[in-house]
Design a protein that fits this description.
With 309 residues, the protein is α/β, with parallel strands linked by helices. The protein is built from ten helices and twelve strands. It binds zinc ion.
Length: 309
């Protein structure tokens, strides 16, 4: 048993094509940097086609994943929106297919994006859409449970492509209504920081609101400023300290350690640092910092798991 392996798993999320040639190159880099986990960006691949599982592609990805000793989590499609009333059946079918893929690839957690809705929605219509998301998550939770998967509803950032979405209290309220053992929350610390700043909320209080539901964590650093300044291309957003940067730890001002300390991590929890691909040169220091964070926040856990199981 390696005493230096923390009782929670630490990893990065893949950012390149989720394809048999590209995927192992990324996973090799992750392992070399000391990752014990990886989040697979299924949205960058071909495992689901028209709402149906593409078995051949799943098998090809599965063969790649089997080559690495990593704990895997799976990210679902960015466009998934269980509050999209006009295309609700399609969203549910796609979510169902990704649950099947997650199980087939041997992962226990599927990250699902929280609902998005247009600005200015009438209260009655907003409540109808919230109920759609709740009912869908209950049914999908049953399906996930049958396959040994937990769904993790993620808090999204307030950026121009997302007109309205749940804040931390909104995610917590939805999950309280869902009340399903297979449905919890993904807490993205950077998104929480942006939302708190935009809505003038207390960031720590917002993290505490979500904490009882958290089954998965996305770590990233940034300045919490939405993309209000016109910056031509992504490169300049860093200079201005705006947008959902997904920058290396310590580059922004999100108090990662303080916030993580508010989240009750269980032994075997997975911390994923979502590093934007343009920062991949800084993978080694990012993973080292993540492991250090994991040690600090998991110090109270009774047993260290030394190897993957
Ligand atoms: Zn996400």
């Amino acid at each position: 048993m390696d005493p230096h392996v923390p009782p929670v798993f630490c990893g990065l999320s893949t950012e390149g094509p989720c394809e048999p040639d590209a995927l192992p190159r990324e996973l090799d880099r992750f392992v070399s940097a000391g990752c014990t986990a990886a989040e697979i960006s299924l949205q960058n691949g071909f495992t689901v086609c028209g709402g149906r599982v593409k078995a051949q592609e799943v098998e090809a990805i599965g063969r790649v994943l089997a080559r690495f000793t990593l704990r895997y989590t799976m990210h679902g499609p960015l466009g998934l929106n269980l509050m999209d009333a006009d295309h609700h059946d399609r969203h549910v079918a796609v979510a169902r297919a990704f649950i099947e893929v997650t199980a087939a690839l041997g992962a226990a957690v599927l990250i699902v994006h929280g609902g998005v809705w247009p600005k200015g929605l009438a209260a009655v219509e907003f409540e109808r859409r919230r109920a759609l998301e709740v009912e869908a998550l209950q049914r999908l939770g049953d399906e996930a449970g049958r396959r040994g998967v937990t769904l993790a509803l993620e808090n999204l950032p307030p950026i121009s492509s997302i007109p309205e979405t749940h804040d931390a209290w909104g995610i917590a309220a939805q999950l309280e209504r869902v009340a399903h053992p297979q449905v919890g929350a993904t807490l993205d610390l950077g998104h929480a920081a942006m939302t708190a700043r935009t809505r003038q909320q207390n960031l720590a209080a917002s993290v505490r609101a979500m904490a009882p539901h958290v089954v998965h964590v996305h770590v990233q650093d940034q300045f919490g400023h939405p993309d209000g300044i016109r910056v031509p291309g992504h490169g300049e957003a860093l200079a201005f300290g705006v947008a959902d940067l997904h920058a290396p730890p310590g580059w922004g001002d999100v108090p990662l350690a303080d916030l993580l300390a508010l989240v009750p991590l269980r032994e075997g929890s997975v911390l994923i640092y979502e590093l934007a691909p343009k920062f991949f040169r800084f993978i080694p220091e990012t993973v080292a910092a993540l492991r250090e964070l994991a040690h600090r926040v998991s110090g109270t856990l009774p047993v260290r798991v030394g190897s993957l199981s």
